[in-house]
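User: For my dataset I need records formatted as: sequence, then structure tokens, nothing else. Please produce one.
Assistant:
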Amino acid sequence: RAATLARSGAEAEQAASAAIDADLGTVGSSCTAPTVDIDVSAFSAPPGQGGDVVVDVTCEVAFTDLLIPGALTVEGRAGSRLDSFRERQP
């Protein structure tokens, strides 16, 4: 949601990255080497056209706390709609 409040695609990417970093840090995540894909292409659409900002996060979570070998790849996706009539820049 933080990305949809931005005025440009670049600002949206920064806002989304900051929110993801804060969330992972807050929960004390054991997520190792997260990969983050932020799609802000909706900012290129002209006002009046809708679009979504979508964020995909993938990481490995080790089973070390369970005292068993191995890890699990976890993935998450979130999206939020841009306001169709808000001013925006690519």
